[in-house]
Every structure is written in C-alpha cells, then in structure tokens.
User: Fold these one by one.
Assistant:
Number 1:
Amino acid sequence: MSDGVRLAARIWMPQDAEAHPVPAILEYIPYRRRDNTRARDDVMHAYFAGHGYACVRVDLRGSGDSEGILRDEYLQQELDDGLEILRWIAAQPWCAGPVGMIGISWGGFNGLQIAALRPPELKAVVSVASTDDRYGDDVHHMGGCLLGDNLSWASTMFAFNSLPPDPEIVGDRWRDMWFERLRGSGLWLEKWLRHQRRDAYWRHGSVCEDWNAIQCPVMAVSGWADGYTNSVFRLLKNLKVPRLGLVGPWSHKYPHQGVPGPAIGFLQECLRWWDKWLKGQETGIMEEPMLRAWMQEYAPPTTFYQSRPGRWIGEQQWPSSNMRDHRLTLARPGTLEEAGVPVDEEIMSIQSPLAVGQFAGKWCSYAATPDLPHDQREEDGGALVFDTTRLESPLEILGAAHLDLEVSADEPVAMVAVRISDVAPDDKATRVTYGLLNLTHRNGSEHPEPLKRGERYRVRVNLNHIGHVFPAGSRLRLSISTSYWPLAWPAPQPARLTIYTGASELVLPERPRRDEEDAAIRFLEPEGARPPHMELLEAGQHKWRVLRDLETDESTLEVINDDGTVYIEPADLEMQRKALEWYSYHGYDYQSPRGEALWERGYRRGDWSVHTVTRTVLTANSTHFHLHAELDAYEGEKRVHSDNWDVEIPRDLN
C-alpha cells in the first residue's frame, strides 16, 4: 500500500496469462485466505482461473497474513486499500485491464462500497448476501431493535482479530504482528453499542445513501434463509445500472454450496456474467429475467432442511407490474378477514413473556447448525394470533408483506414482533417471514421518539421479503408479540400493547402463477474446481439446546458451534475452531436477559502452536448496557497476552 503496509494475497491464473493477459476477479475479505477459507477459495477461484481469469484473494489489512491492524468493519482505510489493490491488479502483466469483484457477506458489502467510489478498473460486481443499508438491514439492528446477532457477530470478529499471521508466510515477524493486533484491534461491540440510532457511523458504507454512485453492473444474490435477502430487491429497484437478482432457498452460503437446497451451478452463472462484462462476449445472461427466485412450497417446521420444495420463477422487472396487494383485516376473535368484509373495531392487548423467541432460530442462518425456526405453536402462546379460514385455493406471495397496525403502549419504549406462518391441516406452523419494530423508531431511526402512554399510533411493520406458496387447506397465521428474545434484545421494561382491530391491516404481495413463463428458468448442476485435501482430526458438534430450570425459572438457549480440528495438507497446518453461546433470562424479568459468547481458536504446525480464548458477556438494566470481555492468547501452554474490558453504555430508547 502507499503507506508501506503489505497485504497478503493468493492468486490463481491461466498458465499463459503473462503471454496472453486476462481479466481479473478480486475477493477481498478478513477471513484468512491461507486456512479458514482455503477450501471455498480453491473451489471457486481455481474454477474461474480455468475459464480464463486471474483471481486474486486478498486478506484485509490486519487479517490473515496482511500487515497492520483491523479496527472495525468497512472503514475508509479498507476502501482506500481496495482502490489501491484494483490499480495494482490492473497494472500487472498478466491482467488485461478489466477487473470484477465478487464476495459473500463482507466481500459482498465492500464490493458495493468500492463500486460506489467508481474506480475505473472495476467493471462489474457480484455481491452475495450483503446489504445496501448498514443500520436498517444488517446484523446489528432490525426495525430499530438491537439484534442478538450483533453480540454473536462481534464475538466472531473478536476471535478472528486475535489470531496471528502464519510464520511460514511472514517469517520471524509473526509474533510482533500478532501482538500489534492483540493490542490494537479493540472491542468492536463497544463501538457498535455507542451508535444505537442511524447516524453518520452507519451511513458510511451504506450505498443506499446515493444509488447513483454505483455505475457498473451488479448481480445481487441471496437466499430466503439468509439474513440479507431484502437488499437484493432494493438494489434491483433503485440502481440505474444493468443488474440482476437471484434468490434461492439458501442460507448464508454461496449458491453452488447452497443449503437448504437445491444448490445450483452458480459458478457457471458467474462465468456468463464475467464473460459479458469483463470480456465483452454475449452470453445471454442479460436476457434472463431481472429477478430469478425460488418460490418455496410448504414444508413441515424443522430447524434444518436439506432442501426446500418449490420451483424457479422470474420477473422481468422489479418492482413487478404482475403483483397485486392482497389485503387482510385484523378482526376478533383472532381472525383475518378479506378486505371489504365489515369488521367492528375491537380492543385487544398483549404483554408477551420473554419465552417468545426461543424457537425463532438465528437472524442469519448458516445451515451449519440447527438454526432455523421451529414449530411456531410454541411461540404463539405468548402472542396475539389471527388466522384466516382454511384456504380454498393456493396463495402465492413474492416480496415484502407489511402490517399497518393501530396500536398504543403503556411504556415509552416498546417493541413489536410480527410473524406470518403457514399452518397445515395438522396444525403444524411453519414460519414464513417476520419483522420487528422498535416503536420509538416509528417515524425513522435517525431521531427516535418515546411513546406517549396510552396514545394511539398508526405504525407500519415491514416484514422480510419472501417467496412462498400457501397451499389449499392451509391457514395463514399472523402472530404479534412484544418480545422476541434472543433474536432481538427486549425493551427496558415489559410493555403492554393495545391493538385496535378493524383499522389494522396485513398487506401481502400476491403473485399470480405464470407457469409457462417460469418453466424456462433453469440452472445447471453445481460445478467447481478440486478442493484442497483436508482431514478431520477431531470431530466437533453443532447443537442448539433450550434448557429450562423450573426451580429457578431460568431459561437458556445454548448454542454449540464446534468444527473440531482439521488438518489442511497444502499448508501443513492444524486448525481448531469452537464457539459456545448462551442466551438466558429469569421468569418475567425484562432486565435479566444475558448473552455470552466464548470462542476458542488455534493453529499448530510442528513445534509452532498458538491458541486464543475470547469471551464476551452482555447484560442490561433499564438504563444501561453492561459489556464485559476477556481476551487471552497462548503460545504453547504459556499465556502471552491478556486483556479485559468492563464498559457501561447508556440505552438510547432501545
């Protein structure tokens, strides 16, 4: 870099690239290219290289084998480094000049962010599982509510940032570089908790601030089980450049690895995209519908699906003129009536137990653990429930439903969680989509306003985008609760919401079937290059357990995410990774929720052995969040670094 810091990369390219230069593809992320993402990288980048591209996988400054310190997500330094990397790639003798960027999650984010800076070398982007809005639709907040994944994700990066570079790459400097990271990366969760409303911190890196800044083609990709589906639809709606959207049933994975299935030949689709925009070859990719999506059919509720039944559908534009609003009015006793049916206003109220949410699954599913929502009947006992009659014919929806709710509250801070479920004839309830709203954010998240006790408000709760078929014989269920722990942090005090039916309305994006047009949408089977040889030395386990102590009235959700120990043959390296999380509460005490994450990570090669232990605990009372964190680093059995944090942060209408 221009300041002298060196970044580490792996490069795949055709053997004759220096004699016959080729376009390049960049993936730029902090997840350790030499070990942690090696298998994924080899499958994808070697495949692209075998089809005429130079692929460059770079560790961010302060991660993997790159020098420097990684102090936070998406800092300007990261984006500036990205611009320099693009210039460096384009200047290499093996590069023909045009460069594309691809990435999932972090790499999907910075692909869009760097595109918004308009570097001349960047000609196209494939952004998978990313967002255009870092406050409104990321791992940190949802509808102004603080997400449990905010703690989980902060703990993940706390562990990543504690890891050293590989001495086989950086030599004897590895220890000095390691200690620089240990002392300098900081506690990211503290930074995030100090920004509980949509301020300049979150606007930075949110490309929705200026859609016109992006002037290169974008392919936006996600899955219905992922946390980043909504942004695909906003990018299609708001960008002015050539663009495509692809949404499958998948969790937070590349679609050629997609679980729940079916996985698709995503790398072949990417080649069609790269050949069009980096080589100027007509591949037919832009003749596809602007949006291709998997229309899911009913499946019984479970925390892990190997695949989801359904079919591919397409829309030539988004928003689509093929859609129509299907309106349902909230009525009593607990019914949803078709719009136009006279309904008298009834007054209903709800104050949910903290148990509502223990079967909600993860905000962003990785499908590597049983992290999808379970049967919703166990949640509905603490919610107001409104059902349709059994459907006489199938109802298909595509897009984002919303609930226009007439509501009042008895506390100045309150939240509402809204779920739609598909209730089968045997009464099993599969969650289809959901949405959250911190009611102090009812007029926006830049300037939240406390509620006036007893005052009636009309608010809109936006639910996540989804494609789903409610079959004939099912009932559509709307569930409303005042808590959703641990998916979202509860309000400071238990609040009772009063719901006014008749004026409250659920609006569904109905899509009439178009089987003849949709039948043309097909994908090839997944392909990829050969993965590296890796051997499982010690098996791990992946479990979610709900533990209930009836004597103390304490409930705990325990998450075990243990990959065991793996030997990576090309690097001659043993890698160990284990994460444990606990989310607990006592009875009806809204100030008792507690989240804890414990990570253990380590590497071994011959006499070289290092491991780190990171622990993060988050609690809160009615006025403050309390954050405690610990970091211990070991060389062999000797602890060589230790750090502790104890921080108190005021709650900001959250």
Number 2:
Amino acid sequence: MYNKSMFDIKEELKKLPNKPGVYIMHDENDTIMYVGKAINLHSRVRSYFRANIGRGPQIDQMVRQIARFEYIVTDSELEALVLENNLIKEHCPRYNTLLKDDKTYPYIKVTVSEDYPRILFSRLMKKDKSRYFGPFTSAAAVKDTIELINKLYGLRTCNRVLPRDIGLERPCLNYHMKQCCGPCTGEISKEEYRERIDKALEFLNGNYALILNDLQQKMEKASEELDFENAAKYRDLIASVKVVAQKQKMTDSSMEDKDILAIASDDKDAVIQVFFVRDGRLIGREHFYMTHVSENPQSEILMNFVKQFYAGTPFIPRELLLPEPIEDMDIIEKWLTQRKGSRVYISVPERGQKEKLMELAAQNAQLVLSKDKERIKREEGRTIGAVKEIEKLLGIKGLNRMEAYDISNISGFANVGSMVVYEKGKPKRSDYRKFRIKTVSGPDDYACMHEVLTRRLLHGIEERQELEVRDIDARYGSFTKFPDLILMDGGRGQVNICLQVLDELGIKIPVCGMVKDDNHRTRGLYFNNVELPIDTRSEGFKLITRIQDEAHRFAIEYHRSLRSKSQVKSSLDDIPGIGPARRKALMRSFKSIEDIKNASVEDLAKVPDIPERTAREIYDFFHPENV
C-alpha cells in the first residue's frame, strides 16, 4: 500500500519540466494505472488535475485514484512515443486502450544459407540469412503451400545436417514415397538441389505460369504413355497450384506493400480490421479486438492500435491507409520510417481502389463486431448462465470458483489425484494441480482423496499465512483462493471424505457430489445428504458434465505420463557420463544396443561428442570381465 501523504501532488506538479517525455500514473497500491506521452510534460500532466473540462467519466475516475505520478524526460516526441508504447506493453495499465490480441503471423522461411536448403513454417522473421515470404494471415494456407512446394520439387523436410550426415542414416519415408529427392543419400548433387530451390523461390515470388506449363507437359506425356497414376498426380498438383494462384488474384498496379485499416466500435468494444497487401496482392485479412475503449473516439483507438501493433510486428509495409486522420500522424510516420529503415507513409484515401478496399475492410469490421456479440451472448449462456442454474438448484449464492477432484490408478499402481478449476463457468487451467499420492499404497480411492484434499487446503492455509506475514495481497497466491463449491467425482462416500477433511481443518465450503448412473453418466447432484435430479438438457447439467470429464481426463493423462516415464529406460542410462545427447549420437551411429556392445573402444571414440575416456567407460560397462 502506498502512503499518499508521502507524495504532495500540488508540489510535484510545480516541478514538472517543460520538456517532452512520458508520464506514469500510480494508484494507492502503487499499481500503474495509465501511461501517456507529452510534448510538454508540465502542461500535459497539470491538465489532469484541473476542473472537469469534458474529459469524460472514465478519466475522472482515474484521476480520483491517482496517488502519485512519475515521469521520464526524453530528447524528442519520437523517443517519448517509443517509450510510451514499450511501457504500455510491459505493464498493461487498465486505463490505457489495449490491443487485446497477441498474434504472431506465419511466414514461409527458406534456409538459403544451408547447403541443402529447406522450406519451413515460421512465426518469427529473424536476421539469420534465410529468405522470408509473408506475413500471411492463415497458418493453414502457409502449411498447405509448403507441402505443395515440397511435393512439386522433392525438397527435404528433415533436420539432418547435410552434407555432414549424408549416408549416416537410412532415408526417410518421404524418399521411398518419391516425395523427396533424397539428398541424405548422396544421389543428388548440391548444384542439382539448388536448381530445385531456385524454382521454389520463383514459385514463392508469384511466378506460377512456369510450373503450370511444366506440370501440364508432364501430365500430357504421362497420359500418352498410359501412365495414368502419374498423370493423375500431375493433374492434382496443377489443381493445387491454381488454388494458391487464385488466392493472389486481387492485385494493385503499384505492386507495393500496404496495410489497410478500418474500425467498428460500440460503447464497450472495438474491432480493427486489417487488410494485408503484399507486392500489390491482397494476401489476407485479420481482425483485432481493443479493450478499454469506453468513450474514446475512433481516431484515438486507431492511434493506439497503430502504435502497439506496429511496435511488435516484424514487418512494416511501405504505406498505412486509415479511415480518418489520427493524432500524432506525422510523428508516428517518422517512428515507423525509423523502424523500417525506409520511408513509410500514412494516408487517408478518399477515392479510387484504395477507398473501395477501405469500405470493404470497414464492412468486415462491423460484421465481426456484430457476430462476436452474438457469440459472447451464447458463450455467457453456456458459462455464467449455467453457473446460475447450479446456484438455483443447490440454493446457494455467489458461486464463482468451482474445484473438482478425481483419483486415477491401475490396481493401486502410481496413485494420482487431479484438481481442475472453473471460474465463471470456464476452465482456469493455470490453477489446475496434479498430486502424486505419497501416503497410500494400493487401490484405496477414499484414502487417496483424503490426502489430496488435505494437501491442497493445508497448502492454501500456509500460503495465506505467509502472504499475511509479508503483507502481500492473498490474491497473488496460487493456492490461497478457496473455492465457492467443491465438486467430487462420486456420491455420498466421496462427499463425506471431503466434509471430513474440511471439518478437520475448520473450513466451511459447500460440497457437492456428481452422481453417475450404471452407464457412468452423470444423473444428478448429491448435496446436503440429498440426491438432486437435474435436467439433462439444461446448460447447468452440461457444465457439470464438462467439469467431471475434465477432472477425469486430467487425472488419466497424469497417470499415463507417470507410467510412460517408469517404462521408458535404456541400458545406456546406467552408464556414467551418458546423457540424452550422447545416447542419441550412439544410436545414430550404431543402430542398436547390440552393435554398441560389440564395438571397440576405437569405434566408440569415433562417434561425435564421445571422448576416448567416455568410450572406455562404455566398453567397460558392456565387458565387465575385462575390467
């Protein structure tokens, strides 16, 4: 808690410099509420504390909560803009308009610096000597295109280091299916493989006519030779190429990169629609949600989006088209030019093809906003509405957090427990917990459940006490938040175990059993010693079923992972100095444990990353009679 008496706002306002910079508003808990930039810090910050001049209730509400402010002076307004954006992304202040989506766009990456390049899917564009194509808005389309190119040119998809690994391993299934030319076998030279890559690069640059003509000739030749299987293969490839080419049909004679932005908003939400035009082609579109937009004009929402989005995207187009002018347009233009390393233009189109694309983007933004409202309404019925149904059925109020528990074992082996958490009818996976049973051996579900519940609740009590000693808000602990309702995967027996644990710890929480019928389907709820029937068509019933299934799934997956770990073991694991990397290198060189056992010290020492001393230890391990 911040002591307001330590900060005299009136005195601090007098000290503000007449320089550009960034100001940061804190509340009484010293939480950052708002970050802003100013050409003149003295004038801008003082304006918040003047009498109401039409700022709107949201800003007035923020001002009433300001306990202190701080500022950072910069040399220019451009530096202030960059710093403001960085601080907003770092702290996500609740009174700043925030870009809700944190998306990274897919690129097609060609590793041209490798001797035998590959074509890969990438979410990041790095300075790694590779060539990148994109960004694209559909990950599925990118994957389809990569798959098509690899089939067309027989390119490798493996992670082998070539030419180092040529001949070390058997070729993969793609080679045998004739979908890879097999550079790992040494059958194709570096120069021949590079010719294939050059053709792939031509394809990615939009030159589809060459490959279509080539495929057409091959199809006709195969058909004349009555090789109908290959003819059908070429026919399908032609169709795939045409699909990719068709997606690029909207072109611009300027052949420039540009992003076209439009906005739709109401009193709570805003949607920004972006059309991506690359090399004159409309490659796709994407929409973004903006939060904290109440009472903000559209121009301000657009300005915040541009600053936040283009600070994070690896690619900045030559031109940004906006539906209306925004504040600081010149300074943002300079900032983007600085980031891109070449001139960037921001403009508002008024006629022509650009204006038509802007109208189309605006229609899409409005459509997304209206459709999303319907989706949210349906989602609330499945979540909040379902929770209210459960409240009414059980006769309780204030139901927000529900925790459900389940036990999993096979004949008592590796007993485990699961805890799943739902808040407002939605799973809160960050609060899920797994428990490996420590005190129970054998198949005793009641004893296992007693341990799980005791450990969970005791942990919460201890964490609360620790946070109180350290004077930290209990909300920041992972176990401190107790549920409003505990759901047990079973009837009377499981409920009584939970009530026993709560009584032992002196805690009062409603407990409800999810009762199943003979076919293992939920039929009702056991609460306060009474089995309550529930309408199987209701959203409340569907939510209970989802929670029960999720608790069961989470426990089963944990148990399965423990079984797998206990069963996967190699004799190489028992040799000192042999870890996963060296074990993999040995298996790559010798193919089997038997081959390693029969190898000499000299042969073992030839394996990459295996020094002579380790080779001797491996040999001695398999030949103890010689030690």
Number 3:
Amino acid sequence: MRRFIAIVLLIISLAASASEPIADFTQSEIQSAHIPGAVVLIGNRTSILYRNAFGQRAAEPMTTDTRFDLASLTKVIATTTAIMQLIEQKKLRLDAPVARYWSAFAKNGKGLITLRQLLTHYSGMRADLNLDTKWSGYAAAMKLIVAQQPVAMPGSSYLYSDINFEILGELVGRVSGKPLDSYCDAHIFRTLRMSHTGFKPDAKDDIAPTRSMNSSPGVVHDPSAYRMGGVAGHAGLFSTADDLAVFARMMLNGGTWQGRRILSRHAVQIMTIPQSPVGMSKLRGLGWALGAPFSPEREQLSGVGSYGHYGYTGTMLWIDPVSQTFLIVLSNRVYLDGKGDADPLRRGIVAIVSDTLKPQTDLSILAARPELAGYFKFTTAHPESRSVARVLTGLDVLEAEAFAPLTGLRIGVITNQTGKDAAGHYIVDLLYKAPGVRLAAIFSPEHGISGNVDEKVVSGIDIRSGLPIYSLYGESRRPRDEMLGGLDALVFDIQDAGARFYTFSTTMAYAMEAAAQHNLDFYVLDRPNPISAAVVQGPIPDADMKSFTSYFPLPVRHGMTVGELAELFNEQIHAKLHVIRMQGYARPDWYDDTGLKWISPSPNLRTLTETTLYPGVGLIEGANISVGRGTSTPFELVGAPWIDSKGLADELNRRSIAGIFFLPADFTPESNSYAHQQCHGVRLILIDRHALDSPLLGLEIASALHQRYPGKFQLMDTLGMIGARKVLQAISEGQNPKNIPVQDDVDMFNTLRSRHLLY
C-alpha cells in the first residue's frame, strides 16, 4: 500500500505543466548553457509517469522521440545483456578466464582475467586504449587489446575501464557468431520492439548531434568507438527515452516485457546485486553501478537496492525496484563544444524525484529485493554497506585500548544519543561496565540525553545505571561545583555538526573551563566533521558577539573536528586536555565517506543533506522566517506567510548559487516559527554539496528577502547568527553577497587553525 501511495503521489506531483519542478530546473540548466536540451522520462512497471522534452537538439527543438548517443549506457543496455544471455545459454561462464574463448588474449599477463572481473571493473585493465597513436578499425583495436598489459593484479582493485567492455563485446561476437550490433539487434532490441535503438543509425533529423569526429547526426562521439567503426562494447548505441523505458520495465519485470522474455529473473537479480571481489569496498553489479547515484542517504531512486548507469554524452538510466520506478535523463551536453555539463541536471532531477519518493523502511527494501539480504546489513530504519566502517571514532579507539587512559579515575561523561561505538554500543553502558573505570555522573547538552527535546532540558536519573544526568541546557549551561564533586576527569563524546553556531562545541568549552577550575582531566573522544573538515567558509563574528551560539570567533564553517576545536579553545582555557584521535579519518571526508552509521545529532538535523544546508539556512533563522522547523524537512525549506513563493524561487535561481536549486513551496509548520500558519517560500534542492558555499547561500537568501520585502523581513535580527555587522551593513546597502569581503578574515583564521589540526 505504501508503495502504491508513493506512485500515486509521484504521478500527481509530476503532472506536466510549465511551472512544475523538473521543467523549471531543466530550463534553468539550459539557460546556464550547461546543456542545449534534454528529454526526461519517469515511469514504473506499467506506466509512463512523466515525459517531456526541453531546449534544442541543435537548431531545431528537442522532441521526446529524439535519438541520443547513449555513450556508456551501451555497456549495460547492449553488452551486459548480451553477455548474460550467452551465460544463460551456457556458451560463456561468468568465472571463466577470457582466454578460454579468445586464446590470444592471454598474452602479456592477462591469462587469469575473468568475465566477472571485466563486468565489475576489477580486471586491472587500463581505462582506455591509447588515442595518441594512429590506429583505425575494429581489428586494430583488438590487436591493441591483445598487446595490453594489466596495470593492476586482476581482482585487486577497482578501475573503471572501457577496455573491459570492448573485450566483452568481442566475446559476444566470438561465441555467438554474430557481431555485437547484429546480435543485440536480433536478440534484444527486436525482441523487445525497441525499434529506435541500435548502433550506426542512419543520419536523420531525429538524432541529437554531438561534437564528434564527424558532425553528422548518428556518428558516435566516443573516440575509441568512432575509430572502431561505430560498434564497440563500451559505446556506440543510440536510443530514445521511450525505448529505454521498455528496457527498464523489462528489468523491473524480471527479464520480461509484454510476454517477451530476454533474461531470466535470476539473471536480473545477479546482475544487480554486489558482484565485486570479497572485501572490496567499491560495490558493482554485473555491468551495473549499485546504490546511490548521487546522495547516499536517499533510499529510493538513489539508495540501497537501486542500480543504473551514466553516459559521457549526458545520459542516465536509474532503476529502483523498491519503489518500482525508473528515471531516464538524456542530453547531448557534448554538443556545446565539449564544454557542457549534464551532471547538475542529473543530480537535480534525482533530488527532485527522490524528494517525492520518501525513504522506505528496511522491511520494504528487503521485501522488494530479498536477494540483497546477504550483502547489506539492515537496521530498523536505514541500511548500511556490507563494509565495516573505515573510520574509528575516538570512542572506538578508546574501547580498543580497554579504556586504559581512564583506569582508576572517577569520571563524568558528557554525551547524548550520538555517543555510540561502531557496533552501536552506548558510551554510558561501555564506561559503566569498563574494568577499573568508575563512572559517577552523566551530563547532557542541548536537546537532552536522547537528543529529542527542543526546549530547556531538566536533569534526571539514568534508568539503567541509576546515575544522575545533569542537564547543561536547563537552569545552568555550565557544570556547577556540586555536579563535579569527587570527579577526577570529564569525558566528552558528542557528534558535532560542523557549524559555528551549533551549541555542542560551546557546551564542550564551558565544561573545559569548569575542568580547568577544578583541576580535572578533560578527554575529548574525537568524531568526524560531518560536512568535511577541509572547507572553511563564511563570516567571522565581531569580538563583542560572544554567546552560547558563538563561543569563539570562528567562520560559519570552521573546518575542524571537535577534538581540534578543543585544542583551539584550550589556548585560552588551559585545561588538562587529552584528545583521543580517530583512526582512518581524512579531512575531506563527509560523514557518508566514513562508513559510520548516521545518527541525527539533534531533532532538526535528521539527514546529512539537512546538516549540509544548516550553516547557510541557519544564518537567517533569528529573523521572522521559518526554516522548516516543525516540518518533515527542516533546513530544506524557507518561508513565511508574506512571501511570494514563485517570485522568491525565481530571484534566488537568478543568483546562480553554485550547488543549489530552489523550487516554489508552500508548507505549514506544526511548531516553531509560524506554527499552524501556511508559509510560502522555497524548497532547497541540494545539487552538489562540494560546489555549495553554504554560508554564502544564507547571505544570498537574506539579501533576496531584504530586497524583495524590505518592510517585512527583519534583517537585523540575523546578527546573532551572522555575527559580523559589516556583512549585515553590506546586505542592507544592496551589495552582491558574492562580493562581500570575508575571505581576508577566513585567511587569518586559517593561520590560527593550522596550529591545531590533528589530521
């Protein structure tokens, strides 16, 4: 029933109209000269839910029946399917060496490479043939492949390789007796009645041209495939969105479409579950990429159980068996002198569709794809990779040492629901049971020990241990003398959010001050900066702006872990500080790069996307504006009853803020600002977190609101979060936020910051 409702909602929300989200976003990408045009199609097992064409093919308008150079989609639509058919016919074996079918291939150390390794890109073959030398023709390419040496031991590492699929295309011809194009036409395309799909199409007006060796429509763009005569296992296929929809439905229907079967259900299953060598973290199916195309925290079109592929020319097919939905995005971005970029388009449409299809539970994922049970570990809410977390937090490191540094000490622990080890064990339980450690008190920060209270928190008793829980966000925000009586040390273990005004770092600093006053040791168990510790951005507060949301004059994104912040703060506190460092952590890591399970650090930061947007949207929430608190997507919404949704969305999109797109939105918060009042505003669609300057995003929103609603938006009320009066003055004067000088201050801070970096 839930899946049915999701599909109905998708049909309703994606009704074709000039103002609907996909159209608005795609048109903005065309206007930005990222693509000349595109076709977008969304469907399920039986229906087309959405189909539209945008922009130009070349001089003429794009149409929904346009044929596109699919580039690397050739790998899965044609070559992988053909290989799987031949495996099912027992003409090929998945784990047989290629040399069994092509004896010359064994030369130069390639004798052990198997079909499975080719299909998963674990063969060790280099990415592509040498294009710096003069060669031409299919036979010449095969001679070059025979002469190749692997650049890595087969099965030892992941290396995406076009050569892998050029080899597979050759195998199709060798064992079937037909060239790849003829075989696929006879056994895949004609069987499924994909009448507009094939290699080397006749040059016609319905083909989107690319910047190929020859400008004629229908000439493959890929240079290796072009030299091979237009037919290769890795590229060369042309097709339409409707034909690809037939293929996607066949996959969703377990290998059959309208009574015509081309694969067994078992073949579809094994193609789309992890087939990488055991122990490898990069998971690939047979031909297909698995899981999230862009945002790992989404569980639908971009989550566990889904699969797909991209093409260099600007194409994408992604299939999600959980929601029974597929997404096709086709563009000829290379037509723009090779300088176009379809990645923002693909990211944005995935985000829009994923926003409609909310995450499923583990039970629904397993019900739809029971074959995944052996490859992923599922919890009650979110699935995790089969791989073990790459990063050990400070708690994991301390636990591995049997808590030796704390032996003999009477301690208090400052923590909340995020204080868990990689196995999910709670730090309070671990310390309470640790031999030689005497846990005597528990302290909780804002939002309480369970992280679910959005108001002042009262002190209490821990039910399991009987120990007192002292609130540091109630009558007092600092540990009082009576709370510290008899303690030898304080231990801090809380996941931070990476933004200056997130209060957990201030709670840590206040506790460090108290520890210094009472001559207590202070241990910080370090954890990742979830939004990357390699980026420093945003204004620094004025010297007199010190507060609970601004303990130290930090940029909005400070680019430090809590352990590093403790080292920085301790320059002026002088506590007996001990930072238990993480292992395996790298500064550029985002939280989902670490392999650690996501635990919401506070009630309104439920996902990594919301945490990524928080340093920007959080800048304006001191004003008379809703930032989505009291809705299901806090910090992904901005609005107020007096805002014109379409006008604000258009204004913000005109500002071309990198990594983000805005959709008009109406919402009614259940609590917080404008509770039970309908707000009009924008929904923020995160397109590229690496490109996003989130503090600049906040300044741009403040600027747009001030310019559009000077008598209503209370700009000066954002001072507490922005912190710098010169920045507010510049916004009030109408300066372009991109030109407001904050980088000099950031550079000065970076000099100070560099002395305290641990990783």
